[in-house]
Amino acid sequence: MLRGLxxxxxxxxxxxxxxxxxxxxxAVYQGExxxxxxxxxxxxxxxxxxxxxxxxxxxxxxxxSDSRFVLFSNTKPLAAACVHxxxxxxxxxxxxxxxxxxxxxxxxxxxxxxxxxRHVLTHQSGxxxxxxxxxxEDWTDPDALGAGVxxxxxxxxxxxxxxxxxxxxxxxxxxxxxxxxxxxxDDFAREHVFEPLGMDRTHIGRPADEDVDVATxxxxxxxxxxxxxxxxxxxxxxxxxxxxxxxxxxxxxxPAWTGIGPTRELARFYxxxxxxxxxxxxxxxSEDTVEEVLEVHVDEPLEADLGTxxxxxxxxxxxxxLPDRRGVPSPEGTFGHGGLGSSMTWAEPExxxxxxxxxxxxxxxxxxxxxxxxxxxxVRSELS
Length: 384
Fold this sequence. Notes:
By secondary structure, this protein is α+β, with helices and mostly antiparallel strands. It has a seven-stranded antiparallel β-sheet, with helices on both faces. The radius of gyration is 20 Å and the shape is globular. The two termini are about 20 Å apart.
């Protein structure tokens, strides 16, 4: 029986051979050591045509360890890190009302004016949707995105409920950073997070002025192996792939979804948080700030035994509750994030493991969760 790294690689390759996706990367740090760095399959076809869907392992451009993939909601912790830096520097506090830094966010004395930075980072702002969520033509215009948030109405009182902010997380965090610093969040993240950590191929939004290749997404028919088809977060898998394969959408300044980069850099990011805000001799955050960020601030059970439990830190999701995409289940202190149908990250204080897994095959939530949990548990069992 294969054990250790061989078993991890075998599980990684079997998902490609089974046709769950056409290309994938897996990177794992243990402490400051990169102990797993796998790449397989293809990132696209040689001629740029659509991915063939009738082959498990089609020919094309080989996936390399530094190939860039769409990160979907794994972008959210990268955006949150910018707020962590500002809090660490004393430029804001997590319990500050957003209007203290962004006066046009809400009318004075309105209930919306009670939304705090903490509410946003824990998905309790009461603003899960905004008018610009599907206005892709506005995604490269920070002014339009900020105006969309200013126009948005509360759907519930801040802090009273938890409702996942698919896009609005990014719009609010992005404009908050711009209001505090005068810089776009992609530029701020580059200077204060990515460059210090050696994340040279990671971006919030595809740079419009650079020749950057990004893995082509393929939207697989939901449950083409078993079960019935259904919608995934309001999209079909094909619609999600078609939308996010567009360069104009990838270039959007969407700090909730349009991150691009390789998994080895995502894993490095999480290894830094596991190490108290320092990696390879470079500190980006104080230990006190990291400790506060990695506390569980929201812990709500499933509603009617459906979906997943809401367990949030300040910008991170936490494992430890069933069902769990990070294991069966993962330890309660496991923090990270997931991305729509195609990616998963987590970090685990108990084992000092930082895990990042990204693929270019968008699948329904159940299939995505199953492949992520299986690979996560394989890594945990073989490296713990």
